[in-house]
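Request:
You are asked to prepare a plain-text protein record giving the amino acid sequence and the backbone structure tokens, at your earliest convenience.
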Amino acid sequence: TDREMNAVDSEHQKNLQSDAHRIFQLHKSLAAETHPFNKFGTGSRKTLDKPHVRDALLAFHKKWYSANLMALCVVGPQTLDTLQNWVEAKFASIPNRNTPLPSTEILTPGPVRQVGPYPDAMGPHRIFVTSIKDLRYLELGWVIPPFHSSYKTKPGHFVAHLVGHEGRGSLLSLLKEKGWVDSLAAGPTKSADTFGTFEVNMELTAEGLGHENEIINLVFAYLGLIEKSGIEKWIFDEVSATADMGFRFQEREDPMRMSTRLAADMRFVNEADYLSAPFRYFDFDPEQVRETLSYLKPDRVWVTLVGKHCEKDADDKEKWYQTPYRIEKIGKQDVAAWETAQAPPELFPPPPNKFIPTRFDILDAPETPCENPRIIRDDNRLTVHFQQDTFFKRPKTAVFFEFTSPEAYYSPRHAVLANLYTSLLDDDLNEFAYDADIAGLHYSLSNTAKGMKLELQGYSDRLDVLLEAVLRKMPDYKVKKDRFESVRDSIEKEYQNFFKDQPYQHAMYETMFATEEPRWHMADYLKEVKSVTLEEVESFIVRLLSRMHVVGLIHGNTSETKALEMSELLVSILGFGPLPVDERFSRRVVQIPAGSDGVFLSVNGPNEEDTNSAIEILYQFGVPDLQEELYLQLIADILSKPFFHELRTVQQLGYLVFSGYATAGNTAGLKCIIQSTVASASELDARIETFWEGFESSTMATLSAEEFQKYVDALIARKSEPEKTLAQRSKRFWSEISKDRFMYDKKEREVSILESSVSKEGLLEFFSRYLGRDAPYRRKLASHVMAKGHTQPESSEATLVADKIGFRRQQALYPASYPKPRD
């Protein structure tokens, strides 16, 4: 019990600097003390370290561990008879104590309409919350009746479709035009037996601060507009059609996720609807929509403002996370103004969606089907790989293009400019592309070290229309001053908030920064972004798109002719010149010097309020061939359980304890990560090394032939697992193409090596040569992140890397290419 209490407390310590946890718990703590929602959401040593806690745990188990309160879902490839036999054998012994369900009575004093956890006396209220990260959030929330029983009509989701719409005439479109809001999301959120919630969440711009009341006024104006003219059957039919389409052609769901979802739904859903209930809209019920809207009124709203700017307003602290906040009643004048809010002409319900596909036919297989992608175009500007899918037979296609430009990563400033360009372009396309997204046609555009990456996935019908729209916007985009200021501000916040990430994330980032060439640091981006101008972005776009080389993959339910048309569309619209091979970007990995003690990096945790120190140790191998890669993966499997057991369960160093196989570029190795409030990074380093010696002398040295074969068989089973979705196969193909490796049969080759070439003796020799404590080619880099209260010892056997860029320039670099497979 003591160990479990420490584990719970470690998790709580990890979450103390998480804004999401802090805000959620604040909303809980403001609930009526008599309501279960008021309780602490997780736990800590303080809450659990009580007399007779074990007896209380057993009593709780005895009272509530009863078959009549449980729902069970088992998903597997076996026959239903086999699954039923397993269930009966494994679960029949669970006692049925006929325990009654907890009371579903309304636990909060107030009128019948008060269905939730907040006392009626609170009325409409405003909460100011001080954040850890640099945030500017405005949230409107309402308590509504529980929505499990209305799964056939989904009134809350219907309202969310309208309020959260991002196209022309939408609430977000107008708020962005005014320069007040960057993003908006709406919908039913918390769901309990006795209540639910509906929330509208908005990320404010710097200009939006001070306009909160006007923003709220527009939200209520739009809700009023829905009541008057938005509850239309054609809108429901359109939402229902896209949902039915998604359900009909959905990819195979992960079994764990599926079983969890079904078990949770079984209490509320008719048996015939188990599989389809979360997805489909069965019946249009305008009265239920009106009832839902009747709860979303000014006299029932809670308004939450989150950000650093709220610090001056805070006059209290939440009990569990010590989150500074202030709560106040919303004045009658504001409520009255919101109740009479009128929608301006810029707000109107969404028009019919022209992107909804109408053709779902599966193309006939080509005369000579190809098992893997093949090149259908290859010139000095564009290389395109193509495969028509004949296996999954879904009416969907995936398109990947990676643009390489020497301008994209020439300096930290160039990287910031590339980020600004793709972000501005995405922001500008959002209104147009939102309908496509609803209709199952998705795109993403992002900057990379090479240049840019454009991905499109979804129904084959109309995907080319979306591609053309994105491509035409790329060279013709004119930067708008108001959106430039807003997007630049958003990116600056993103860079700033990086330094509030958890310590283990910083340990991993510093490892990456010290071992990849070239690699700029987030701190460099933060210095540059403040001074970038609109004119600079416009001139950068011209240079970025002037000379490029593009590599692409088109895979799915589409023909070679269509793939060639899309490829030509890209070249003709963008009109870029060729980029010679010797000017194309290549990132290489730094070779860590060999030596048993290795090297280490040390940085102070950038968030002084975080009491966690962290470490990542990388044991670098280099560029492996397939057999060497498999030996590393086998050792990672053997290492996993004892590492976790010893350092988390026994030594109780922290909640976050992890070891595993690691890759960087074309190199591989092993990594060990720990985040801890009870030990400094240097002590964590020493504990890991002590464990490593024991692991070498006990686990590895005593590994039996039978144990070795179990690990091999388990790895074979993982490698032999077939792909379950078209998207998985598309991503595998693209991974091989983007790596310039083209080993599409990698898993088959690996299984063959595991079955015929690996051996226990070979594994032990590999370990003693590259990973053992005194291995001659051991390459260790430890990345230390120190909390304010933890100190770094003055001396260490390892060599301190004080200058990471200098370290990168002094060390050898691994080749950028992958080794050719042995035939």
About this structure: The longest helix spans residues 412-438. The chain has 26 helices and 21 strands.
